[in-house]
């Protein structure tokens, strides 16, 4: 009923996932997620308290005032009570006071998150949602990449938040990495912003949270929080032009003379398409197909042959390459470190 | 004073059955051409029950697909169609018609009228709604026209733009969805108009607004909300059709249109819609809980005021569905407050029901058991609703399985439980026979177990980051065990529902004969025979209080002694405490 490919591929992913619940909102790893977590403890306390009181009364009433066999002897109806102003006023005013308290606590978190002061050294990343992948560009660093977002880790004395400026190329999407922050919708013809500041290095998982079409399920998000040194090295690497390995010149020719270049970019070549992910440093990424399978030559081969093998509904068509060309172009792409 | 003489249709049947039994075509003709509010009400209910089973089956298919990660039981295309059609069916072709069906049947009986104010409009509304439902399912055959395989709409039940544009949704399945919802909206407006007119102008002598049964009050509120809520939805559907076929750009983001505009249009319908669906459930609770507690409803004026209050406030909370859209902190704060405020009148209702139970003699009939299930689950649904009204929590939980669990708690745990309660309560009135209590207890307990297995555990994957509307999920996310439990609960609910259907059929033929008033109840529908004659009451009844049959049964201590002659806000009785 289920494909073994999923289990094999995901076994590899699972080993890199932090803990058993990699997208648990109750395990925050950044300021916005943490302030939501703190607020949720207050809200859970209040609603839990209300639940205990009201359901306790309900159970008491059901037991205490149940109809008993002894009642059947008398036709007497219970004493009729029609209402009471004092009692009804009390259960109007008390909930209203609770609402006011909850509202004030909520407002504080809304403003501290949505109106946070942006430090001058904050990193800017532009996020474009596509059916069904993520485009990330770093306008001040000249980097364009896809599906795997790298950001630096800050520490409390020197926070390094990353500001995401988001929009969509097609339908509505939503950017959600629960351990870092709440979700923000990614909407065409509208620019939204959010910020994240992971506090410990690692991989944070999430996925598109607004139904965006056939393959919404496999529009996964991977955020790599790097130490400042790692991040600087990653930036320097991404800024390099694409590797030109003479041993895969044949595959390069196949790529440049097929429809690949209409949709994909490889910096420094004639491939300047914008419809699909930038492939300049494809081989430096851990996954392909928007985080859904590990980036191995085998998976890459299957994906190019017919992307729907791995990701039904994906917009990239089967390339109908002969097996020689297919091998060659796969070999070429694996060199794009 | 009340109608107890032999209804003439029985006389007619007795005479007519000798020469020949009516041909099925004649029976069919009778139903198709009827303008009788009871028959139309029953057609509404029957039609909704069929769609309930169909959409429930769709839910089961989805639960099989999600039981384990990376399942290939259905394709993504099929899954996306399933959740779209499931949601659309349940809201527009189960929830609305079944609630209006009960309203149609009960309102004239409860206010001592012989029919609705506009019987032909009533029939028109039913048939156009029914046609809408058929159109939705016709898309499975005709969605891609004659040249392609059939397809269902796959845009989600709130059909966010621009996914519905022709670029992203080619073919005609989205058009069938649009037309189905549009037609259902026309039918809904017609019925709502009818309910308002009937309530305003058809009440029997003595039945002032302050003596109206609470059920009728709540239907009045819900119908008025319908006028305001359905308009924007219909407008949006027309705009969408113009976008798709006439080159307009309301929602066409590629040409400068706005995706957010659709969200506003949809949710200014969509949120009141939730209350339009839940108020009739409150309405049933307001009738059933007092009868089985053997006490008058506690705080009638407060109950009316709370319902009207909910009606008004619910018009100003729609953007709590849009906390993640980027409306800015100002707008988010406003809609947090509006949404939280609605919990105050809702709380009043729960407390008043508890106070009604307090001091009563509670009879645990199956109907009452479902009503108690409703109280308990509505409490939880309300509390998770408060959690979601806290915008920062919604940033995490919105569009996750937590939200799916929350609104199913409202729709199944509260509304469907109260509907089951209403079935057990009014089935004897409609058919003249009691539903089996024995089967009913099995139905109740199985359904409670299945419900809690499914919808309690469904909250958890949401907390662990599982978004809704994904046809499959990764094995490493820790969601599998929860999804497995949720899916197994769905199977238990399906079995319980089959028991209920069996009970309805079996009891129709073999159930105990009910008589006019099996529950020793107090409202006017119990004063006429079961089933009621086509004209309801031989003589128009006259009432002097909110519980006319109580007055009749307790002439020494009628309610009218305690209900002041003043209008709503003052009608309560300190001296009676």
Short account of what is shown:
With 337 residues, chain A is an alpha+beta fold. Chain A is built from 8 helices and 12 strands.
Give structural notes.
The complex is a heterodimer of chains A (337) and B (577). Chain A has 337 residues and is an alpha+beta fold. Chain A has helices at 4-16, 31-64, 85-114, 228-239, 249-256, 260-263, 297-305, 323-334, and strands at 123-130, 133-138, 143-146, 148-152, 162-168, 173-175, 184-186, 192-196, 202-207, 220-226, 287-288, 293-294. Chain A folds into 2 domains: 21-51 and 88-239, Immunoglobulin-like; 246-334, Immunoglobulin-like (Sandwich), CATH 2.60.40.420. In chain A, a hairpin with an 8-residue loop joins strand 6 and strand 7. Helices cover 64% and strands 0% of the residues of chain B. Classes of the chains: A alpha+beta (337), B mainly alpha (577). Chains A and B meet through helix 1, helix 2, helix 3 and strand 9 of A and helix 4, helix 8, helix 9, helix 10 and helix 11 of B.
- Report the uncertain regions of chain B: 1-17, 565-577
Helical segment count of chain A: 8
Estimate the global geometry of chain A from the Cα principal axes. elongated
The CATH class designation of the largest domain in chain A is: Mainly Beta
Topology:
The complex is a heterodimer of chains A (337) and B (577).
Chain A: H1 4-16, H2 31-64, H3 85-114, E1 123-130, E2 133-138, E3 143-146, E4 148-152, E5 162-168, E6 173-175, E7 184-186, E8 192-196, E9 202-207, E10 220-226, H4 228-239, H5 249-256, H6 260-263, E11 287-288, E12 293-294, H7 297-305, H8 323-334
Parallel strand pairs in A: 1-5, 4-10
Antiparallel strand pairs in A: 1-2, 2-3, 5-8, 6-7, 9-10, 11-12
Helix pairs in contact in A: 2-3, 5-8, 7-8
Chain B: H1 8-16, H2 24-32, H3 37-66, H4 76-110, H5 119-142, H6 173-201, H7 214-245, H8 259-293, H9 300-313, H10 329-341, H11 343-357, H12 366-389, H13 391-397, H14 401-431, H15 437-457, H16 459-463, H17 480-510, H18 548-553
């Amino acid at each position: 009923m289920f494909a073994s490919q999923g289990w094999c591929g995901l076994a590899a992913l699972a080993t890199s996932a932090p803990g058993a619940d990699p997208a648990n909102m109750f395990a925050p790893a950044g300021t916005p997620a943490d302030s939501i977590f703190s607020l949720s403890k207050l809200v859970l306390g209040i609603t839990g308290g209300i639940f205990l009181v009201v359901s306790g009364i309900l159970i008491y009433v059901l037991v205490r005032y149940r109809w008993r066999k002894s009642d059947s002897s008398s036709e007497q109806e219970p004493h009729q009570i029609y209402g009471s102003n004092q009692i009804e006023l009390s259960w109007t005013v008390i909930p209203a006071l609770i609402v006011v308290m909850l509202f004030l606590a909520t407002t504080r978190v809304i403003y501290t998150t949505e109106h946070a002061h942006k430090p001058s050294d904050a990193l800017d990343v532009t996020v474009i949602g596509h059916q069904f992948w993520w485009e990330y560009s770093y306008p001040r660093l000249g980097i364009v990449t896809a599906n795997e977002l790298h950001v630096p880790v800050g520490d409390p004395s020197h926070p390094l938040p990353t500001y995401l400026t988001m929009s969509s190329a097609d339908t509505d999407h939503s950017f959600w990495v629960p351990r870092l922050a709440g979700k923000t919708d990614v909407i065409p013809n509208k620019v939204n912003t959010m910020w994240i500041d992971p506090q410990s290095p690692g991989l944070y998982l999430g996925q598109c949270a607004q139904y965006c079409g056939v393959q919404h399920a496999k529009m996964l998000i991977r955020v790599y929080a790097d130490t400042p040194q790692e991040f600087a090295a990653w930036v320097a690497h991404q800024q390099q032009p694409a590797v030109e390995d003479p041993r895969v010149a044949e595959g390069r020719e196949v790529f440049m003379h097929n429809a690949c270049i209409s949709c994909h970019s490889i910096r420094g070549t004639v491939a300047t398409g914008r419809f699909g992910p930038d492939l300049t440093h494809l081989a430096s990424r851990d996954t392909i197909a928007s985080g859904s399978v590990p980036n191995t030559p085998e998976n890459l081969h299957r994906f190019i042959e017919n992307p729907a093998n791995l990701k039904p509904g994906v917009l990239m068509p089967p390339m109908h390459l002969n097996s020689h060309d297919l091998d060659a172009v796969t070999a070429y792409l694996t060199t794009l470190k | 004073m009340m109608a107890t003489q032999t209804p003439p249709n029985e006389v007619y049947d007795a005479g007519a059955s000798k020469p020949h039994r009516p041909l099925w075509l004649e029976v069919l003709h009778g139903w198709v051409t009827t303008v009788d509010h009871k028959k139309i009400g029953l057609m509404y209910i029957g039609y909704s029950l069929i769609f309930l089973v169909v959409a429930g089956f769709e839910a089961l298919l989805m639960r099989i697909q999600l039981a384990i990660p990376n399942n290939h039981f259905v394709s993504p295309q099929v899954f996306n169609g399933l959740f779209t059609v499931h949601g659309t069916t349940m809201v527009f072709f189960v929830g609305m018609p079944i609630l209006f069906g009960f309203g149609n049947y009960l309102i004239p009986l409860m206010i001592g009228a012989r029919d609705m104010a506009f019987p032909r409009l009533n029939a028109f509304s039913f048939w156009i709604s029914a046609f809408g439902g058929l159109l939705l399912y016709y898309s499975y055959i005709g969605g891609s026209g004659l040249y392609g395989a059939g397809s269902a709409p796959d845009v989600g039940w709130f059909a966010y733009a621009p996914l519905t544009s022709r670029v992203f949704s080619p073919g005609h399945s989205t058009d069938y969805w649009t037309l189905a919802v549009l037609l259902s909206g026309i039918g809904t407006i017609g019925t709502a108009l009818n309910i308002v007119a009937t309530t305003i102008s058809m009440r029997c002598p003595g039945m002032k607004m302050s003596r109206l049964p609470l059920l009728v009050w709540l239907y009045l509120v819900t119908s008025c909300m319908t006028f305001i809520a359905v308009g924007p939805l219909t407008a949006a559907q027309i705009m969408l059709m113009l976008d798709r076929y006439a080159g307009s750009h309301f929602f066409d983001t590629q040409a400068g249109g706005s995706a957010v505009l659709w969200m506003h249009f949809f949710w200014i319908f969509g949120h009141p819609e939730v209350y339009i669906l839940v108020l009739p459930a409150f309405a049933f609770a307001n009738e059933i809980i007092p009868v089985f507690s053997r006490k008058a409803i506690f705080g009638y004026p407060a109950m009316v005021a709370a319902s009207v209050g909910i009606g008004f406030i619910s018009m100003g909370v729609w953007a709590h569905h849009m906390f993640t859209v980027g409306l800015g902190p100002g707008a988010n704060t406003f809609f947090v407050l509006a949404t939280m405020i609605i919990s105050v009148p809702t709380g009043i209702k729960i407390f008043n029901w508890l106070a009604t139970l307090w001091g009563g003699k509670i009879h645990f009939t199956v109907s009452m058991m479902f009503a108690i299930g409703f109280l308990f689950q509505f409490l939880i649904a309300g509390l998770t609703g408060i959690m979601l009204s806290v915008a920062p929590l919604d940033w995490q939980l919105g569009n996750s399985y937590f939200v799916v669990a929350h609104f199913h708690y409202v729709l199944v745990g509260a509304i469907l439980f109260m509907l089951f309660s209403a079935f057990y309560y009014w089935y004897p009135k409609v058919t003249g026979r009691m539903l089996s209590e024995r089967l009913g207890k099995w139905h109740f307990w199985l359904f409670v177990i299945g419900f809690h297995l499914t919808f309690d555990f469904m909250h958890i994957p949401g907390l662990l980051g599982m978004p809704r509307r994904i046809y499959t999920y990764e094995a490493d996310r820790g969601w599998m065990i929860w999804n497995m439990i949720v899916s197994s609960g769905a199977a238990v609910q399906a079995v319980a529902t089959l028991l209920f259907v069996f009970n309805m059929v079996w009891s129709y033929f073999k159930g105990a004969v009910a008589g006019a008033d099996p529950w020793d109840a107090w409202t006017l529908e119990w004063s006429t025979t079961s089933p009621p004659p086509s004209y309801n009451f031989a003589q128009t009844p006259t009432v002097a209080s909110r519980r006319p049959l109580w007055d009749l049964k307790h002439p020494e201590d009628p309610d009218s002694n305690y209900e002041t002659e003043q209008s709503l806000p003052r009608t309560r009785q300190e001296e009676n405490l």
